[in-house]
Design the sequence.
């Protein structure tokens, strides 16, 4: 064969495609004309059928060119300008959230994760079956996005970049398909059951053999579209699993349906034996009904999280340089652009207020309906509502990186870390499917050797009754509903297994500043050295603190004319900078090497230069209104510890009226970290609550980390849970929900396993007819889903 012809089909290869599609066959690199021929050739080689090419007498037919068209369409997603909207940079890797079509159950999610994780270049795959989404992280140097989407399509699933409107449209398409299949199955089931019931109980009187056979043929005719169309959902799932060399819950379902259907055809044609056409129709109808209810419950839970993106308006009023205002698409706004928001309008994007005052309704983020007063330099977020006043807002984040979109991404990534209970249930359900198939085979063998005429139908009952659909739904349905509930309250989980760990927490460690207190500081007392000018020193202090993002810096807001260079931040210590060629230190006494004996006030902030203490300040803060109520609740079941960088005196004054037995002050970030490690080494499970840069190391070391209120970005990065609202009372809600989830998962798994173990002896012994098995299995799945959705209403 010519070097310029396709090795598979023999057609000539376009000069532009030479060397583009090739694979090794019989030890030599062979060129193909298109991806279709390449895919078929690779499948032949991978399945050990390489000798086909050695012994064939003529080239194969050209493969389906539709694959080429599909790849051409998918190549569009490799365009950087298109990716700008939905692909996120994660250092050297890229990340995307996909909407999945064709996903029907937990086994589908497992199959996608396993298959994609084998692909070189894909670093992480997290499939959220409940929301029909996948979060994929990949290396752009090793694989393209179009190749990832093509791999998904190859294993039978459609993937497209997640967009709320498109995701909703995808859900409606799947719901419409479900309703068509469910409607057909329901109508036909009624007709077939009416015919077969009449025959079984002989309600039509003495029916002649010809009439009976006529009814059988009618029943077969009515059952066929139910089997071939309504039941196709299960066959596709089974084929996908078997093609990946594994089994899922659809495998025994498919075997049971086709075995019963073919047996019915045989009995009808040969006019000999029993038929169970009504059981087939009822089985498919009830199983579809449970899948449909699961589909709706998943959507209900997902809506709570996804709906917040629908609050963000499409357009914005952009203020141009010349002072004119024009309408602009929110997604086209860039950092630094200025938008105008009037009373009653929704803020289109994240930003900082340049001018104006207003009460902002942030309930869509925090769950709190009391408006928050905002003024100049305050941060605002897309999707929140300006209730009064007019604001000029400088854009700080593009729409892609806005807080609401970050929340959706974090919710998706949270499902990447499955709790041990979910992992155990996934493994157990796969092993259980294998066990069901083995038990079914043994059951048939036993009853067949016993000479029973019902051996076949007893085996069908075993296959149907013990299908572990409910077990596969037990954990993911409960987790998704719990995360949706927490999101509604303004609590954001970054990893799902944090819920499992929260239930084992024994000790809660809290930072003081910004966590127990508001973080709104004021200078209570000041002291200045005799030889310094107070106004000059304060101007220097204002200039230094203006560059700091620590909450204490807000106590030093004032006018200054000094330029600061070589500015540096020491977390837990203080700040430093050069003003007029002099290096100034400002922070704790230890950081500044200040002489505390010279200062008559209870200072916690010092200003020093050239080894001299120039000024000292007592900066105070007020306790949060809900701090006492929150700590009173938490103290009933947890040990409470305060770890603060403030002075021991200030810490003792603050906690004197609180139900806290242990409070340590004057701690650097390193010492906080050591204190948590010491508690963990003593066997305690520690939850750490903090909000500042200095809390990042200790947050990362804790068993569960909670970023409180308006935490810094560094603290949010280190945390496992983020409280979007500014209320500590969200913490008891978080803990209560974690315990509820654990309880629901145990109930679901207990019911699913208990049902299967209970029903198995009845099915194996022949006491359970196929229609009884159908009803029991479907009700089991419906009960699990319904039990999980109760979390949304609590």
Sequence:
């Amino acid at each position: 064969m010519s070097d310029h012809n396709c090795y598979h089909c023999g057609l000539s290869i376009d000069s532009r495609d030479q060397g583009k599609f090739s694979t090794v066959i019989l030890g030599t690199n062979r060129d193909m004309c298109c991806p279709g021929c390449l895919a078929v050739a690779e499948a032949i080689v991978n399945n050990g059928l390489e000798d086909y090419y050695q012994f064939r007498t003529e080239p194969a037919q050209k493969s389906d060119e539709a694959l080429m068209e599909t790849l051409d369409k998918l190549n569009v997603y490799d365009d950087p300008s298109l990716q700008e909207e939905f692909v996120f940079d994660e250092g050297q890797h890229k990340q995307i959230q996909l909407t999945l079509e064709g996903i029907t159950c937990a086994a589908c999610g497992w199959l996608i994760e396993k298959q994609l994780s084998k692909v070189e270049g894909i670093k992480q795959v997290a499939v959220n079956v409940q929301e029909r989404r996948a979060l994929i992280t990949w290396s752009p140097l090793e694989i393209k996005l179009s190749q990832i989407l093509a791999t998904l399509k190859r294993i039978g699933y459609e993937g497209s970049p997640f967009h709320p409107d498109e995701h909703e449209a995808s859900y409606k398409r799947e719901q419409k398909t479900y309703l068509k299949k469910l409607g057909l199955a329901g109508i036909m089931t009624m007709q077939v059951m009416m015919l077969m019931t009449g025959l079984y109980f002989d309600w039509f009187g003495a029916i002649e053999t010809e009439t009976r056979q006529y009814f059988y043929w009618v029943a077969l005719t009515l059952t066929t579209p139910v089997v071939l169309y309504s039941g196709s959902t299960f066959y596709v799932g089974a084929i996908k699993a078997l093609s990946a060399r594994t089994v899922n819950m659809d495998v025994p379902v498919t075997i049971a349906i086709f075995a019963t259907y073919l047996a019915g055809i045989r009995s009808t044609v040969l006019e000999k034996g029993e038929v169970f056409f009504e059981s087939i129709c009822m089985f498919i109808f009830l199983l579809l009904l449970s899948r449909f209810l699961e589909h709706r419950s998943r959507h209900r839970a997902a809506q709570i999280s996804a709906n917040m993106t629908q609050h963000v308006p499409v357009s914005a009023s952009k203020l141009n340089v010349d002072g004119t205002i024009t309408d602009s698409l929110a997604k086209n706004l860039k950092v630094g652009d200025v938008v105008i928001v009037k009373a009653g309008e929704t803020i289109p994007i994240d930003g900082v207020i340049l001018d104006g005052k207003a009460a902002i309704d942030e309930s869509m983020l925090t769950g709190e309906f009391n408006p928050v007063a905002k003024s100049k330099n305050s941060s605002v977020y897309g999707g929140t509502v300006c209730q009064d006043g007019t604001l000029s807002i400088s854009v700080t984040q593009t729409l892609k990186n806005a807080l609401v979109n970050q929340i959706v991404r974090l919710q998706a990534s949270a499902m990447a870390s499955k709790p041990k209970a979910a992992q155990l249930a996934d493994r157990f359900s796969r092993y259980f499917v294998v066990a069901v198939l083995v038990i079914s085979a043994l059951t048939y063998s036993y009853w067949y050797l016993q000479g029973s005429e019902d051996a076949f139908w007893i085996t069908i009952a075993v296959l149907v009754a013990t299908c572990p659909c409910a077990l596969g739904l037990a954990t993911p349905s409960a987790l998704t509903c719990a995360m949706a509930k927490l999101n509604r309250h303004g609590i954001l989980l970054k990893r799902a297994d944090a819920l499992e760990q929260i239930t084992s927490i024994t000790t809660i460690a809290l930072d003081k500043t910004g966590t127990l207190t508001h973080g709104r500081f004021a200078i209570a007392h000041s002291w200045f050295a005799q030889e310094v000018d107070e106004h000059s020193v304060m101007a220097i202090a204002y200039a230094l603190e203006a560059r700091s993002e620590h909450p204490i810096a807000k106590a030093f807001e004032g006018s200054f004319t000094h330029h600061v260079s070589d500015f540096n931040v020491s977390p837990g210590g203080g700040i430093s900078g050069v003003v007029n060629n002099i290096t100034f230190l400002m922070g704790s006494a230890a950081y500044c090497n200040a002489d505390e004996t010279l200062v008559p006030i209870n200072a916690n902030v010092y200003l020093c230069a050239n080894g001299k203490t120039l000024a000292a300040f007592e900066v105070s803060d007020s306790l949060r209104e809900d701090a006492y109520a929150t700590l009173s609740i938490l103290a009933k079941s947890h040990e409470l510890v305060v770890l603060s960088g403030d002075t021991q005196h200030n810490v003792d004054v603050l906690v004197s009226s609180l139900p806290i037995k242990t409070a340590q002050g004057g701690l650097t970030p390193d010492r906080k970290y050591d204190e948590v490690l010491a508690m963990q080494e003593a066997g305690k499970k520690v939850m750490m609550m903090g909000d500042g840069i200095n809390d990042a190391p200790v947050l990362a070391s804790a068993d569960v980390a909670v970023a409180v209120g308006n935490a810094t970005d560094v603290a949010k990065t280190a945390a496992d849970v983020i409280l979007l609202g500014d209320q500590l009372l969200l913490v008891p809600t978080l803990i209560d929900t974690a315990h509820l989830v654990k309880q629901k998962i145990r109930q679901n798994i207990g019911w699913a396993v208990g049902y299967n173990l209970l029903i198995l002896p009845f099915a194996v012994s022949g006491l359970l007819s196929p229609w009884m098995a159908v009803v029991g299995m479907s009700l089991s799945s419906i009960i699990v889903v319904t039990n999980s959705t109760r979390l949304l209403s609590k």
